[in-house]
Design brief:
2 domains, 5 helices, elongated, Alpha-Beta Plaits, alpha+beta, single chain
Length: about 160
């Protein structure tokens, strides 16, 4: 499926506010409801739209302590990577995790209540993994920008 400007406009609208009705989106992209509905269904069917979600304020729920953790594993072996991945997937505090290049093998984003919760996470989970060589953490004290909306980066001319 090749996207056009209308598809991009629809995607932008959904990223900005996925609770909008098709009628509201149609008015903003200057089309009638049926073509917009059909385009949204095609975007979903072709995997451009993975789902719809609410953006929750974690701090209001008592989870205002965000930490980025870099981890160096003891060896670069497939079984080590797989074991690490298996363990990390069970840690509810980890909201993002990725294998990386550079001095560390993994970077993870943690959502925690406070410094005490961070200490518990290190002692009860990370320190028990014998495949970890070292850990480096950075605590977020204030965001400059925190926007994961992909449509703010991608334009029709960049793909």
């Amino acid at each position: 499926m090749k996207l056009d400007q209308v598809d991009f406009s629809i995607l932008r609208e959904l990223v900005e506010d996925s609770s909008q009705s098709v009628k509201e989106i149609a008015a903003k992209v200057s089309l009638s409801v049926t073509p917009v509905h059909d385009r949204i269904k095609k975007l979903e069917a072709n995997g451009y739209i993975k789902g719809y979600t609410a953006i929750v304020d974690a701090e209001k729920l008592g989870y205002g302590f965000t930490t980025y953790m870099q981890i160096k594993l003891i060896k670069h072996q497939e079984e080590i990577f797989n074991k690490f991945k298996e363990e990390i997937l069970s840690f509810e505090e980890v909201t993002e995790a990725a294998f990386t290049s550079g001095d560390y093998d993994v970077i993870m984003k943690l959502l925690l209540r406070d410094l005490h919760h961070y200490e518990e996470f290190i002692l009860r989970k990370i320190s028990k993994l014998d495949i970890i060589d070292s850990v480096k953490s950075s605590f977020i004290f204030k965001y400059i920008k925190n926007d994961n909306r992909v449509m703010n980066v991608i334009t029709l001319t960049t793909i």
